[in-house]
Amino acid sequence: MNKITNIVITDKISFNVTTTLSVVNTKDFILTVDDSFNYRNIFSDQKEDHSFCFDYTNSTMTAREIVVDGDPKENTAIYTYEVIVESQEILKLSQHMKYFKLYHTSERYANDYSDGLFYDPYPVFLATMNRIRCFTDYNMKDDEMQYIMLVTFKKQLMGEAIDLQDSMNALMFYNDLVDLLEITERSADYFINYCNLDSDYEKGQ
């Protein structure tokens, strides 16, 4: 049940870790972060295969226990920790979907881990709305209808993959949407490719 949730990326990274076993040594944390295009390597054990790797050599990581549900004596406890990562490398992270994996030591396992996805839906929503505005709202062409249906279908599949915690497929469907919607980025900001202002839609405004 180990999972990472509530990921926030600013000048630092914060997230919650929920586990069924208590974390016993927060000083040996290793956090790997993979951009969506690096989905093939998300399960690799080699640091160099990941987009980013944060450990004691390049970052400061702190964790505090915020919730314990259940009874540890009866093995029904669920622990939640708030983790904060500070590093200069964080400034290189964009707001694209990412896979997070935190290696940690639990009370029973020396090589335990928790994982989860970072996903900000706003850029995809903004890009979708922008592309739809490029189409006329009357007499829509077949290829335009097929395009809208494909984007909608990909978004639905990505959402289902996220709900099912199927990280690899979620990242792959996200990449499909980035290509379909022509989402580009510079640093952590999104720049949407706007439609031609001479389109029939714009002429009618």
Indicate the topology.
Layout (H helix, E strand, L loop, with lengths): L2 E7 L3 E7 L3 E13 L16 E3 L5 E10 L8 E9 L11 E9 L5 E7 L3 H12 L8 H22 L3 H15 L1 E4 L2 E4 L7 H4 L2
Antiparallel strand pairs: 1-2, 2-6, 3-4, 3-7, 5-6, 7-8, 9-10
Helix pairs in contact: 2-3
In short:
Helices cover 26% and strands 36% of the residues.
Description of the molecule:
- This protein is 26% helix and 36% strand.
- The chain has 205 residues and is of the alpha+beta class.
- The chain folds into two domains: 3-118, Immunoglobulin-like (Sandwich); 122-203, no CATH class.
- A four-stranded antiparallel β-sheet has the order 1-2-6-5, with no helix packed on it. A four-stranded antiparallel β-sheet has the order 4-3-7-8, with no helix packed on it.
- A hairpin with a 2-residue loop joins strand 9 (183-186) and strand 10 (189-192).
Return residue spans where pLDDT drops below 50 for at least 5 consecutive residues: 186-192, 196-205
Strand order of the largest sheet: 1-2-6-5
Query: Helix coverage percent of residues?
Result: 25-40%
End-to-end CA span? 52 Å
Number of domains: 2
Question: Given this structure, which CATH class of the largest domain is correct?
Answer: Mainly Beta
H-E string: EEEEEEEEHHHEEH
* Morphology: elongated
How many beta-strand runs?
10
Structural class by SSE content: alpha+beta
Average pLDDT rating: 85
CATH fold-level topology of the largest domain: Immunoglobulin-like
CATH architecture descriptor text of the largest domain: Sandwich
Major sheet description: 4 strands, antiparallel
